[in-house]
Amino acid sequence: MARTIRINGIDVPVIADEMTGADIKAAAGVGDDRVLVRQDAERNTIVGDGQRVRIAEGDVFAHHARHSKAACETRPTAGNPADDPADDPADGLTDDAHDPRR
């Protein structure tokens, strides 16, 4: 039975009762680099590309950019005073020894 779902405000006709996130994105012409989110009245849920979801008439989805910062590890940068506390008694160095500008 044909039904219509809405993705980012655009009506998308679908036939299947269940679809993967990748199938839904393909039906809407959404790129692989986007994250699919199912929007319910109570909450928003990320739908993975391989995750199967039941489709009902009028289901609402959105797609968002994948944030590269979400998976990045932060590392101290050399010479940044915020990354190396001044006068740390554990290292036996004074503030002058920590500052590469001196």
Helix content: 10-25%
CATH topology of the domain at 3-66: Ubiquitin-like (UB roll)
Order of helices and strands: EEEHEEEEH
The count of DSSP E runs of length 2 or more, i.e. the number of strands, is: 7
Largest sheet: 5 strands, mixed
Short key terms for the protein model shown above:
102 residues, mainly beta, Ubiquitin-like (UB roll), 5-stranded mixed beta sheet, two-stranded antiparallel sheet, 2 helices
Structure characterization notes:
The structure is a single chain. With 102 residues, the protein is mainly beta. It has a domain at 3-66: Roll (Ubiquitin-like (UB roll)), CATH 3.10.20. The protein has two helices and seven strands. Residues 70-74 have low confidence and may be disordered.
How are the elements arranged and paired?
Blueprint: E1 3-7, E2 10-14, E3 18-20, H1 21-28, E4 34-39, E5 44-47, E6 52-54, E7 60-65, H2 95-98
Parallel strand pairs: 1-7
Antiparallel strand pairs: 1-2, 3-6, 4-5, 4-7
In short:
This protein has 102 residues and is mostly beta strands. It is 12% helix and 31% strand. It has a domain at 3-66: Ubiquitin-like (UB roll), CATH 3.10.20.30.
